[in-house]
Specification:
The structure is a single chain. The chain is 0% helix and 80% strand. It is mostly beta strands and 84 residues long. The chain has one domain. It has a 6-stranded antiparallel barrel. 15% of the residues are buried.
């Protein structure tokens, strides 16, 4: 298994609660995915912008790294796992 870098904007249905963010579903290249498990969460700082990374497993297939950009209130698909 390896990661493939994607870095594409995506639409995400998100749950916000008291400063916490959790992705519930997302759409990538026209296909919907339902998040069934969040395997890891980490944050980093890019200049003045804070990014929150979520490694998620989906019902449909595989695992993905979703990135939430605080300053822009937007999501990006960072990487996807690829079976070899």
């Amino acid at each position: 298994m390896r990661f493939e870098t994607i870095n594409e904007a995506i639409e995400v249905i998100t749950y916000f609660d008291g400063g916490r963010v959790r992705p519930l579903r997302f759409r990538w290249r026209g296909r919907p995915y339902r998040v069934v498990q969040v395997n890891g969460i980490w944050s980093d700082q890019k200049g003045e912008e804070r990014q929150h990374h979520f490694h998620v497993a989906t019902r449909e297939s595989g695992s993905f790294e979703l990135i939430y950009h605080d300053a822009r209130c937007s999501w990006k698909l960072g990487r996807v796992t690829v079976e070899e």
